[in-house]
Structure prediction request, 241 residues.
Amino acid sequence: MRPQASPNRVGVVLVEPFNVVRAGLSLLIATVPGLQVLAETGDADEGMKAIRRLRGRGKVVVLVGLELAGERDAFWLVRAIREEFPPIIVLVTGTDLDGVTISQALFVGADGFIHKDSAPERFVEGIRRAAQAEIVLEGLPRGALGRIVEGFDRHRNVSSVLTAREIEVLGIAAEGLTAREIGRRLGVRERTVTTHLNNIYRKLGATGRMAAVTVAIRSGLLPSTNGLNWGVTLPKVAALP
Prediction:
């Protein structure tokens, strides 16, 4: 039985379809002080079950292999984790990927990408940096950064950018409620609401609530008759701060 997450360690869940790669990552992480493997599987459904079984308040990073295929593929898993467990950090990993695939993973909620052929010390460092809330892009293919930026711009106005829960939170936030008030309405902790809002701002490229609501309305994520309580008129041009 795997150890439970410890407040003094970063717990890692491996969801990697290739057995040899998963075994190698498990051995690597096990040798690093401050990291511990909490669970490992090659299936998205089993990965979600493992995450739900986690206990404790330690930091958790989930490594998701982008080669996961089928109806419940890597993108499904990233979205599912982000919606059900907002505080958990998700890093996608892969080889021979283009910027569009990586940008799609980031848009559905991944916190970063690590190339599977990265040097072991850099791979581990990527996990540590992600655990400190940094966006990690380690070992990007040549020219991929520009394509990721283009992918962000291309996907910016589609409804798949935000999860259903994030849209719900943003819709309530548009009424002018505080994070604490939103939490009370939804029956969740204030910190969970704050995490949702931060993810929303990052995905929409917004610097705050007003900008996020404006982008969401223009993108069709929120109706223009959402009962806004801002006392201001939303700008008609995309000149957001």
User: Anything to note?
Assistant: The radius of gyration is 18 Å. The first strand starts at residue 10 and ends at 15. Strands lie at 10-15, 35-41, 59-65, 89-94, 112-115, 136-138.
